[in-house]
Each structure stands twice: as structure tokens, then as C-alpha cells.
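Notebook, student rotation project (T.W.).
Task set for the rotation: take a protein with a known small-molecule partner, predict the structure of the complex, and write up what can be learned from the model alone. Partner molecule chosen: 3-phosphoglyceric acid. Sequence and SMILES entered below by T.W., checked by me.
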Amino acid sequence: MKNTLKDIDVKGKKVLVRVDYNVPLDANLKITNDKRIAATIPTIQYLLEKNSAIILMAHLGRPKGKIVPGMSLKPVPPRLSEFLGKPVKFVGGDCIDSQSKKAAADLKPGEILLLENLRFHPEEEGKNASGEKDKAAMDVFAKELASMGEVFVQDAFGTVHRAHASTTAIVKYAKDVVAGFLVEKELKFLGEALENPVRPFLAILGGAKVSDKINVIKNLLNKADTIIIGGAMAYTFLKSQEVITGTSLVEDDKLDLAIELIKKSKERKVALLLPIDHIITDKVDFVNKQMPGDAIVKNTADEAIPEGFMGVDIGLKSIEKFSKIIKSAKTIVWNGPLGIFEIDEFSKGTIKIANLVAKSTDNGAISIVGGGDSIAAVKKAGVDKRINHISTGGGASLEFLEDKELPGIAALPDKK
Ligand SMILES: Nc1ncnc2c1ncn2[C@@H]1O[C@H](COP(=O)(O)OP(=O)(O)OP(=O)(O)O)[C@@H](O)[C@H]1O
Ligand SMILES: O=C(O)[C@H](O)COP(=O)(O)O
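Predicted structure of the complex:
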């Protein structure tokens, strides 16, 4: 357990809060998904109630230590301001230049300031101006950031898998260090699911590649009762069992690994379930994310995919089979869509699974969804409000599911 906001006195203090405002922007620099902004409101609201002066620190994109105007955090303050119903200051420029320091020094209790993209400084990612690794430079930068406030709150769950100036180094220089409410909530849901799950514990894993999720599968083989594997990942597993997979996306260099994982699941008595039928097509337009008008689409009779066809979604029999397991699960962790859900015709399996997870949640199961595409899928299904916890971390929640140490969490002091 980490020290959290309620463990310290923040009344009237100048509080630095690391948030994850790495939000998607369209070509006109308009925010297309504000979930990460919304997720920081409880911490900010609490600090406002305590009359703190709030200095928010964040990154956007990967500007690689250079000022990239298209990666400015400028679009964020107006949206944050709408959520809070009060102004949010933004001076832009450089997060530690004299203007930013002055704005931070002048900030009054009850006011909010967002600093410009931390990653415009190479030191944020532990490098110097020449782009070389430089821990000393990172420390100097972290110290400068820390000096702007009296308390440091880590609430950027999406970034805690990075050992950066504003996630690890800053902790050495800040006077008081605590986790914010978002980090607390993420750790509670993900932590309890993995350490102390109400059983049966079901993990649903999908997405494009087995290679992205090997360590998640390995770790969940020690924890879950059942693992459903869908999405393109399933075809590598099926091919490893000598099932014909046609032109489906298969990672041939991961076939041995798939065999090993299936063997492990048997040893550990974890039910590792693969689709028993599929939606297949002879053509997909991956560039425009659409189904060509003349494409043939059908549901296979069984797990085999004929030559010339590609698996693009789980089939009806698989949905029926998985539905029973989802209904009886008491903890459900879901990461990765079960088909090419961006194309409507191939999204039915994922949407149906999203509805089943929501229904199971209505009936008392604990549900946790992580991963950008899976979150988009529960939204597309219109059931996002019925899921217990939607993680704001992409890479961070995957690394949590892998049981990897998250440096930004390890750096926070434990509760006494
Ligand atoms: N059968 C399939 N064939 C090809 N691609 C597929 C298939 N099933 C799923 N995908 C693709 O997998 C991608 C999502 O995989 P990914 O592992 O990135 O999911 P995620 O973990 O939820 O998202 P993120 O990586 O954004 O956090 C989607 O673009 C989807 O179209
Ligand atoms: O979007 C994310 O996963 C986080 O903001 C971290 O961003 P990064 O992968 O560029 O470090």
C-alpha cells in the first residue's frame, strides 16, 4: 500500500501533480478522447477543496527532447477547465523557464496551472541535450521541477511504467510524496484482481500479436482459472496445434512458444480456450479499415480456416461457448479485441463479448478492461459505464498484468 493524498496535509499548499494527459489529437489538434483528463478530476477536485495551488505536469506524444508545436499541451487546459468549471492557466514555452517558474511561484491557493510538455526536455527521459543517457542531467531537471511545489502527487498511472524525471527522479527531491486517487484506484482494481481475485477468475486476451502479450499470458497462467484467447493471437495458437489457419495473421516464430504455453496451462490446470469457429473473409482493406464490397464473408463450421481465407472475428459457436464462462466468472480482466473490431462487419464478436462482460458485471462480477483498443471496443458496444474499472494505462496496465515492477510506483513511499 502506498501513501496517498489523504495521508498528508495539503491544505493551502503548493502541490505538484504528475498527470497523464497523453491524449489523442486530430489533425486540427482537437482532443478526440478526454478520458485521461476526466480521470484526474477527483484528485484535482480534492486539492481544490483543500485550497491547494495546483501545478500539473504532463507529457504528450514522443517529441524526443525537442519543442514540437503539434505536441504542445495547449489543447488540454480548455477541456480541463470545462470539467472543473474554473480557469486553468497555461503559459506554454518551456516547463522550467523563467515564465513557468514565475507562474508557479505566483499561483494562489485554489488556482491551477498546467506546465508545457515535459518531454520537450530530453532530461525528462533521462537524456542530455546531445541525446545521450545522462542521469545527472535528469536529476537536475527533476530537482527544478520539485522545487516548484511543496508536495508531489503521482497520478499519471499511464506513465508509471517509465523511469523518467517526473516519475522516479523527482521523488528524491520533493518534500512530501504520495499517490493520487487515480493511481490508488488503478492499483486497487488491478492489484486485487491479480493478488486476491474472487474466483472463478477469467482473463480474456485478444489483439494483434502473441508477441505483445507473452508475458501477460505467462503471468496469468499462475493466477487465472480460465484464459480465453481471441483476436489474431488465436491463430498462432491454433496453427501450433496443426489447425489450418488460411491467410490469417500468424506469428510463425511464436509457434513453439504457443505449444509451451498450452502445455503449461495443462500442467497448471488453467483452461486455455481458443475459438472453435470464426468469421472469415477473403479480402480486408487494412489501410482504409473497411471490408471491400465484393468480399466473401462467412462463419466457419469449425476451428479450421480454409486456404485463401483469413480469420477476422470469433464465430457464433465460440460466442456461445465463451458466454457460459463469462456468465459464471466472478473476476474478469479483458485486454485486446477479439477481432478486427474497427470494421463493423468484424466487430460483432467483440461487441457481443463486451455486452456479456457488462451483464456479468451487473450480476456482481468484477470487471476490468485495459488496452486502448479494448476500451474503444467497450465504448463502441455502449457498455463502458457498466464496467467496474477501465484502466487509463495502456503499456502500464499491460506491464502490471505481466507482474513487472512499475518504476513510478516503486518510487512512491509505502504506507507506514
Ligand atoms: N483477427 C484479426 N486479424 C487481424 N487483426 C486483428 C484481429 N483481431 C484483432 N486484430 C487487431 O488487433 C488490434 C488491437 O490489438 P492490441 O493488442 O493493440 O489491443 P489493445 O491492447 O486493446 O490496444 P492497445 O495496444 O492500443 O493498448 C486491432 O487493431 C484489431 O484490428
Ligand atoms: O500513452 C501512454 O501509454 C503513456 O502516456 C506513456 O506514453 P509513452 O508510451 O510514449 O511513454
